[in-house]
């Protein structure tokens, strides 16, 4: 039996190519710049933040609303404080749990599998940590919120490298990004220094934007990185526009609540690619062994 015809998109990623040396060089250059900026942020962050008037308060934020929290929507629903910002974490946790549940049924290249697992585990942790933090926002809870994001972020960066540079460079990317992001997530609480966290976030976004412009390479499973970064960028914009969105919608929903939902939708391209890969593998197995498919 012949295998079903592949779409042009799938056909492109079905043809493995060795990592382009220029892509590896660009990745090394990015890593060097990121580490340099991160060390500068670690060393000079508090001084720079003070000079720019961006020093953090004990809540880990610059600005608090009259109700004492850094988020505009503090309404209580059925006894649940800050209900909208707590409940809107559910899609994040569900996306992570769904991804972790489907992953064992999908055959992926080794590093892509590890990065995907990290990404989904991070989403689940972010959903739970963020819900806990928003229930009673304080600086310690914010560390748990950011730790989940750090794990998700490391998975996303490693996936972008696996898709556009290769499996080999994706492995150190995962561990280096995980270490840097986890340490950066704790620094605002430990040293009052949020700058390394900002460097990791915006530096990571820059890497994914660059990856979008590269061609898929060996082992790529067809994750639409453009969609992933677009949802993430929208989430950041909604986060910045927390109060403006709340007032624009007639105090119906805040920017931060929508941020959680947009961030959960950033998981969709990864879920779609892993599910499509699982289906393609099953089709090939059925084509190779029709009797097993009917059993
Ligand atoms: Zn939040």
Helices, strands, pairings?
Layout (H helix, E strand, L loop, with lengths): L7 H7 L6 H31 L31 H5 L2 H13 L7 H26 L3 H26 L2 H25 L3 H18 L12 H16 L1 H7 L6 H11 L2 H21 L1 H5 L1
Helix pairs in contact: 2-8, 4-5, 4-11, 4-12, 5-6, 5-7, 6-7, 6-8, 7-8, 8-9, 9-11, 10-11
This protein binds zinc ion.
Low-pLDDT runs of 5+ residues are 1-14
Bound molecules: zinc ion
Please give the CATH class of one domain.
Mainly Alpha
Calculate the terminal CA-CA distance, rounded to whole Å.
Answer: 17 Å
- Averaged pLDDT, please? 86
- What is the assigned CATH homologous superfamily of one domain? Rhodopsin 7-helix transmembrane proteins
Radius of gyration: 21 Å
Please outline the major beta sheet.
none
How would you characterize this protein structure?
By secondary structure, the protein is mainly alpha-helical. It has a domain at 82-281: Up-down Bundle (Rhopdopsin 7-helix transmembrane proteins), CATH 1.20.1070.10. Helices cover 72% and strands 0% of the residues. The protein contains 13 helices and no strands. It has helices at residues 8-14, 21-51, 83-87, 90-102, 110-135, 139-164, 167-191, 195-212, 225-240, 242-248, 255-265, 268-288, 290-294. Helix 6 packs parallel to helix 8, helix 7 (167-191) packs antiparallel against helix 8 and helix 9 packs antiparallel against helix 11 (255-265). It is globular, with a radius of gyration of 21 Å. It starts with 7 loop residues before the first helix and ends with a helix. The relative contact order is 0.15.
